[in-house]
Write a structure and sequence with these properties.
mainly alpha, single chain, 70% helix, rod-shaped
């Protein structure tokens, strides 16, 4: 028998041998065992492998890749991430033309095993081979963000937007990354883009307003509020905020206009009335301020500060009787309320001062004594500012010799109550008027 092997026979034998090798590899896949390349210890990605020797045909490589992809996906789906990695490593080795995008699942296998550095490697390799896969970009952005690499995360998030422009979700995440990087200008610009995409989203616009308030000039912030009010005229929360900022910036006229609109539509909101009163008070429109404050008192009848504010505005109008009446009402609402004693003391002081001018008579000094008694009560109250104002008022009256002296009392021993047209509004039975007797007794 002739055992000589011809060149042609050698070629046929090589072909048969290669087919057998390919078959062995494919069959091995069915038993979950990959001959090339093994997963690295600790879940690390395999080192870059040399390009497989072209000893098998493209069709044979495609068969290996197809089988391994199928088994890799099944292992991944069933939570067998170690086996899945083995299969995907083989796919990565034989898919020399990079037709198959295994990188999302491959990286996820590493993530599931806690091998985050390996996952990062997988994502970074993935975007090089599949640059238009926005999910790889987004996943890589998340990994960079979690590592505090905000600039790198922003690059990847912007690439995702390049692939899918004007995606609101991607823009929202990009804005958050800009905030994390403290890049306020781009954060605001991104929110502005989102507002244009979703013009009816009030919460989104409020986020933009809040960010501009915190990070931009007052003028830019106010401009954004004004735009919101113009676009959403019945967004009463936005109008309230706009009016409040106007008030803070001392634009009391425009603030009063906005609060007037607000309170007409939200009449049960006590704070709207309060701020309207404050704006009108700044404009010295005392009657308007009183009307607004009375709305507050209707809603909160026991609010001593607001009742006292009504008293103060009547004092500004020179209506001593009404000012005193509201001051007394404040004390009824809150016993010992220091600011109310101050306003009531000021009522008597200003009335006596306007009457006496530069030459106080004994009658005027009796009215100043009433004021002294009220300042004294304020000085004993629990409110620090009222105590300070009360002590100052007492000092002024004593040092200016506006209250009766021993000589004054001796010369006018029969007169113990103020009289005259200027003091007709004073009821001698009021508790504070009785203080005159106490004061005069001190002079004995």
């Amino acid at each position: 028998m002739n055992y000589n092997i011809t060149s042609k026979n050698k070629t046929n034998l090589n072909h048969i041998y290669n087919l057998n090798i390919a078959l062995i590899i494919i069959l091995a896949g069915f038993f979950g065992c990959a001959p090339l390349p093994p997963a690295q210890p600790g879940g690390q990605p395999p080192a870059s492998q040399p390009t497989p020797e072209l000893t098998i045909s493209p069709a044979e490589r495609d068969s290996i890749v197809k089988v391994r992809l199928s088994f890799g996906y099944e292992c991944w789906k069933n939570g067998d991430y170690v086996s899945a990695l083995e299969h995907y490593n083989v796919v990565r080795h034989y898919d020399i033309e990079h037709k198959k995008n295994i990188y999302r699942v491959w990286a996820d296998c590493f993530v599931r095993q806690g091998a985050l550095d390996s996952a990062l490697f997988a994502y970074e390799e993935g975007i090089k081979l599949f640059p238009d896969d926005e999910n790889l970009r987004l996943s890589l952005a998340i990994m960079y963000r979690n590592q505090g690499r905000f600039a790198d995360a922003i690059v990847q998030q912007k690439e995702a937007l390049r692939i899918k422009p004007d995606d609101a979700r991607y823009l929202t995440d990009l804005e958050a990354l800009y905030e994390a990087a403290e890049d306020w200008a781009n954060a605001i610009a991104t929110l502005e883009t989102l507002v244009k995409l979703q013009p009816n989203d009030k919460d989104l616009r409020q986020r933009l307003i809040d960010l501009k308030r915190a990070r931009q000039s007052p003028e830019e912030y106010l401009s954004e509020l004004r735009k919101t009010v113009e676009q959403f005229p019945e967004d009463w929360s936005a109008r309230f905020n706009y009016a409040t900022v106007l008030l803070e910036r001392k634009d009391s006229r425009e603030a009063a206009i906005q609060f007037d609109i607000y309170t007409k539509n939200r009449p049960e909101d006590v704070e709207g009335w309060r701020r309207l009163a404050q704006a009108l008070d700044n404009l010295a429109e005392w009657n308007g301020a009183i009307a607004a404050l009375k709305k507050v008192v209707e809603l909160q009848p026991k609010s001593a500060p607001d009742i006292t504010a009504v008293s103060s505005n009547y004092l500004n109008l020179g209506q001593s009787g009404e000012a005193r009446r509201w001051g007394a009402r404040a004390i009824e609402a809150e016993a010992g309320y220091g600011p109310a004693y101050i306003v009531m003391a000021d009522v008597y002081f200003k009335c006596a001062d306007a009457t006496a001018k530069d030459n106080p008579r004994y009658i005027d000094k009796l009215v100043f004594a009433i004021a002294y008694g009220l300042y004294e009560k304020a000085a004993a109250s629990s409110e620090p500012q009222a105590r300070s104002d009360g002590e100052r008022g007492m000092r002024i009256l004593i040092q200016s010799e506006l209250v009766p002296s021993k000589e004054d009392k001796f010369m006018n021993s029969r007169t113990t109550r103020p009289t005259g047209k200027a003091y007709e509004w004073i009821d001698t039975n009021w508790p504070e008027v009785q203080y005159i007797d106490k004061y005069l007794n001190k002079l004995n």
